[in-house]
Amino acid sequence: MKNDAIFIHQSPSCMDSGLILYKEGGNLKIKVIPEDFIVKELVNIKYAAGGRYRIYLLEKRHWNTMDALKFISRENKVPLSKIGSGGRKDRHALTYQYISVPREYELQFERPNVRLQFVGFAGDFVSPAVLEGNYFEITLRRIEPGRVDEIRSRLSEVEAFGYPNFFDDQRFGSVEDPEEFIAERIIKKHYNGALKLYFTTIHPEDKREEKERKRKIAGLWGRWEEILPLCRTPVEKDIVKILQEGQSKKHLAAALNAIPKEELSMFFSAYQSFLWNKTLEKLLPLFAGELFTVKGKIMDYTFYRALPPGKLKALRKLEIPTVSSRIPDAAPEVKKALEEVLAERGVKPSDFNLKKIRKSFFKSFMRPAIVFPQGLYSSPFEVDDLYPGYRKVKIKFTLPPGSFATMMIKSLGI
Q: Which SUPFAM superfamilies does the UniProt record give (predicted)?
């Protein structure tokens, strides 16, 4: 297997706030400005004047979806649970997505870089069920002139052969180490360890004071009276107060149940996505000879450049289930790979039946192994206005719900 490594990281400077793809001989950049990464939801909404829900189009830059919805909820005195949405969109982008509220509510929201526009009434609320896909316009920058033909060729290969449908780094925002999944510790009933990770995981974007606070809590772990003054959120305080009462399995489970449902769901989704990715990673060598890797946040991503016709046909039909206590039937090679991944992590499907954690649960669904960008178009290469001496190109395409455009960019291997 050919192992050409490509590295990706977030640039710290103001203008270079986007992702950088590094390879020997040069680097390429995306998301330098929000307009370099445009996402528009494609939805199936049936509008009706007498509909029970108001539908709005949310346009934003420099905001992630959850923060925007929290502010909208607060300003309009609408419970967050009443606001329907189909998916979360990146902060480092210009995004358009739909949200809904019951008809009795009316939303207004004015903030820099956020615009809310009333679209109409509908008989149903916005949820992942109404999503048909996402349309993308992505500008690739800092392209060396000598690599233009290479990029054109690779885009043609992706159009013909698709690319592995990995969950991308965005799914693992709560995780800094592949051995430190909160969800995995919960599954293994290491409740104390899961809670410690919840309080003490240090993220690169944490400010110095926050990193110091987390280190102090880690050093004091178990001394709840001393930790309580260090707590900053009501949830942290509630958890520590429960632990002050006792540290039996019952108390530890109650402390975990104090974590908001949205956060627990995020932890569980991250772990499911990781296991799915590792399963696909094991399967790809069965279909492709020449592979290359891209280094991600907590794992490397494996890509192919082309596939023999028979292998392409087989891989195009292949679906991999996400893990839960009840995993749908799958192809023999998928079952084998998934069993190997679970064994390597020291877990089994029955462990995913979380009887003591009431707020969230694991649900299995089938996900295609590879994905094909539809309507893939690339503009003529132009002089890069931000990086003199380099070129830029805009690519446009549509992906099904749940597939990552950033993974498509990684798959270019440039």
A: Pseudouridine synthase
> Average per-residue pLDDT in the chain?
90
- CA–CA–CA angle 370, 371, 376 (5° rounding): 145
Angle at 262 between CA 258 and CA 268, to 5 degrees: 90
Structure tokens at 376: 């893939």
In the structure encoding, which two tokens stand for residue 55, read together? 């539908």
Q: 15: which DSSP letter?
A: T
Structure tokens at 195: 């809670």
State the DSSP code for 203. P
What is the DSSP-derived secondary structure letter of residue 369? Answer: S
Q: How far apart are CA 7 and CA 20, in angstroms?
A: 8
Question: Residue 300 corresponds to which amino acid?
Answer: D
Give the pLDDT confidence of 5-36 residue by residue, as tens digits.
333 333 333 333 445 543 333 478 999 999 99
**One-letter amino acid of 3:** N
Taken in order of first residue, the domains within the chain and their CATH numbers are 38-134 (3.30.70.3160), 182-263 (no CATH)
Instruction: Report the alpha-carbon angle 164-170-176, nearest 5.
Output: 110
**Does this model's pTM top 0.70?**
yes
> Which candidate, 265, 270, 234, 240, places its Cα nearest to that of 254?
240
What's the confidence (pLDDT) of residue 279?
98
Residue type, 396: K
Query: What are 22's strand-pairing partners?
Result: 7, 27
Looking at this protein, which amino acid is placed at residue 219?
Answer: G
Structure tokens at 167: 């969950």
